[in-house]
């Protein structure tokens, strides 16, 4: 008896044998996906007790910038004294798992730990679920060197301006006085001077920071351009970093309860 194998079936069998086979462009993980990057890197970072000078890199909008991300990683690795890196959202352009994996693979070459916050583009398609699988919760915080970094979702438009993004009650709870914390820094993607930020929440958002003793700065990305602004009379700086594609990032230094910024080209 002769056995005939349909060519299409052969092709399918070949695909199934490939470790990188993707069942759908909307999938949120595969067997090679990174998992819980933020938690793993924060464990590696530790709490920085005894570190009286906190130095970290702020970048964002890595979408469509794979080559630039490789160069960014090399630049940061050549800089001494960096404690960690923050990617302030828009890791992807279309919320696709493969994009997230490409960028994460490049960032995994950093010598120091890195964490990421969710951007508006990361919330498209199945990006939200992919981000949670790969990085973790959309709102989280961590402590390093006596500074609490409050990382949160400010992508109001993608949540249809539902009045809950950003989650101001959560922010206030995270910024309550606690032992071992002398200062606070907020980190999110969309800045409050953007049309993509829920205008009904701007006053409550900035007031939450202004009312927090020891709050140093609110850091963002999204616009692809550097901007330093003061939305109220609190004196708290709000800073937006340029994009990865523009080959620029921010070096932030916290010492003696004060924060300073330096623009770095690469």
Integer count of domains:
1
> What order do the helices and strands follow?
HHEHEHEHEEHEHEEEEE
CATH class: Alpha Beta
What would the principal axes of the Cα set say about the shape?
Answer: globular
- As for the CATH topology, it is Purple Acid Phosphatase, chain A, domain 2
Q: What's the name of the CATH homologous superfamily?
A: Metallo-dependent phosphatases
How many beta strands in the DSSP annotation? 11
**Poorly predicted runs of 5 or more residues:** 1-23
Task: Tell me the number of helical segments per DSSP (H or I, 4 or more residues long).
Answer: 7
SSE class: alpha/beta
Task: Evaluate the radius of gyration.
Answer: 20 Å
Whole-Å distance between the termini? 67 Å
> What share of the residues does DSSP label as strand, in percent?
15-25%
Protein name: Metallophosphoesterase
InterPro entries: Calcineurin-like_PHP, Metallo-depent_PP-like, STPP_CPPED1
Pfam family, one: Metallophos
Domain Calcineurin-like phosphoesterase: 55-226
What is the compact description of this entry?
Residues 55-226 form the Calcineurin-like phosphoesterase domain. GO terms for molecular function: hydrolase activity. The chain is of the alpha/beta class.
Structure description:
The chain contains seven helices and eleven strands. A hairpin with an 8-residue loop joins strand 8 and strand 9. The longest helix has 12 residues. The N terminus is likely disordered. The protein has one domain: Purple Acid Phosphatase, chain A, domain 2 (4-Layer Sandwich), CATH 3.60.21.10. It starts with 6 loop residues before the first helix and ends with a strand. Helix 3 runs parallel beside helix 4. It is an alpha/beta fold and 266 residues long.
